[in-house]
Amino acid sequence: MRNKATEENFFYITTPIYYVNAEPHIGHTYTTVLADTLARFWRVYGKEVYFLTGTDEHGDKIMQVARDAGVEVAEYVDRISGIFKTTFEELGFTYDRFIRTTDKDHEEVVKGILKKVYDAGDIYFGEYGGYYCVGCERFYTEKEMVDGRCPDHQTPLEYIAEKNYFFKMSKYQDWLVNHIKENPSFIEPERHRNKVLSFLDDPLADLCISRPKDRLPWGIPLPFDDNYVTYVWFDALINYLTGIGYPDGANFAKYWPVVHHLTAKDILIPHAIYWPTMLKAMGLDPYKTLKIHGYWQVDETKMSKSLGNVVRPLDMKLKYGFEQFRYFLLREMSFGLDSSFSEELLVERINSDLANDLGNLVSRVLGMTERYQDGVVKKVEGHEGKLADVAEGIADELPGLMQGFRFRKAILKIWELVTAANAYVESVAPWTLNKEGKHEELAGVLYALLEVIRILAVFLTPFMPETSVKILTKLGLELTGDKVFEELVMWGQLQDGSKVQKGEALFPRVEYSPE
Question: Is 179 considered catalytic here?
């Protein structure tokens, strides 16, 4: 039974730990941007948040890639994991821990869980033959295969038969089906929940959880048989427990009841079937929710290093600015659906949404405040028209949208205030009020618009954190202190006599320049 007070006060978000067979690209970035946005939002909302990300470093594929690169596997994983960590730091992600499956504490947690499940009789030694994808590090059933190929990588599957240890996953099939049906939010969006239930219509096979050390020495040794190492999925999924101090850490007790796993659809089955059955065998409550997002495609094709269409986050940061790229990712993809990336569309969004709509609003209002009032705020209320109501409505809706992982809808909702404020400027024409000498009314209009800009900065804090700081700095403010979201977005907090400064444009227009 989950504690409602815990759910109200704490929030735990995880990304998948990223496989170190390649350097970070837009897919890794998108997932981590989503997690970072949620972490930032709920912190501002007053919750205690834990945000976990990291790298997955064991398995067949890693051995193969390191061998192809002509380096020792430990050297290879250190290098690629380091690139992920450095990239995430450069992109400003606010994770609480960057975990690696080669971390010592993770190895000990995996061994402890394996021993516990083995001692309970849910792990046995046997022989199995099946069709295996090295890229996915898992066996596929004939129902899942597409013309004898991996449905994700489109590569031929290799038939492998060998003696290994198996987890009695089938034992928990009925329990899992019932849990999914009784908890509609357990796997979302709904089409992915239905896909899992369809998969579970057939008898569930037991899960091979080991590899012979003479074939694959790179992995965590089984605590009950040193001739075998742990299968990568049984190792990797456990990071979500290691990262919060399982089994005895204070963070584990605090955050496990409110864990939300965020991942792409290519690893739906391991997260939706392997992981909850593993947790059940451990005697733990399953995770609260599994949220599945779609793929970023380039020219309607899934990104692939072989096709040369990989979009790298630091390239986008250098060329356009990461805040701009971050906005695009959140604005463009409807959660759960695939979306197409193009630099032309990115440039269009920067120039239209950011430079014209938001940037121009901030520049015009601050410019008029400098021109007509020497940059001094005059607190004259009652001239905001419907702006305060629009802001209040957005503040009421945002928590629900973020609970539902509806990032695009949240961005569009915030932009309703940007649009309303720009329309208000045109309708009241502050320049005309100044020309006609209506200085009291002008002060009230500018105060309303400055309040809109301040509230927009609060709304944008999780989505565009650097932009939010820049706007608040122009207003002479900081997002500090004990106030939380509901208080920060209350109307009328700018103080009479405070100073504002227009400064440089938030978003200079950019040109699309394909290389």
Answer: no
Q: Phi-psi bin for 72: left (phi > 0), alpha (psi -120 to 50), beta?
A: beta
- Residue 25 falls in the annotated catalytic set: yes
Could you say which architecture CATH assigns to the domain 343-488? Orthogonal Bundle (1.10)
271 given a catalytic annotation: no
Q: Which fold has domain 4-293?
A: Rossmann fold (3.40.50)
Cα dihedral: 29, 35, 38, 42 (round 10) = -130
Q: Are 78 and 217 in contact (CB under 8 A)?
A: no
> Active site residue: 58, 133, 192, 293, which one?
133
* Cα(56)–Cα(110) distance, integer angstroms: 13
Residue 265 is given by DSSP the state: G
485-506: per-residue pLDDT in tens? Answer: 888 999 999 999 999 999 999 9
* Residue 116 designated active-site: no
Catalytic residue flag (residue 305): yes
> Distance (Å, rounded) from C-alpha 425 to C-alpha 446?
9
Q: What is the pLDDT of residues 401-456, one digit of tens each?
A: 999 999 999 999 999 999 999 999 999 999 999 999 999 999 999 999 999 999 99
- In angstroms, the CA 298 to CA 288 distance is 33
> Is 293 an annotated catalytic residue?
no
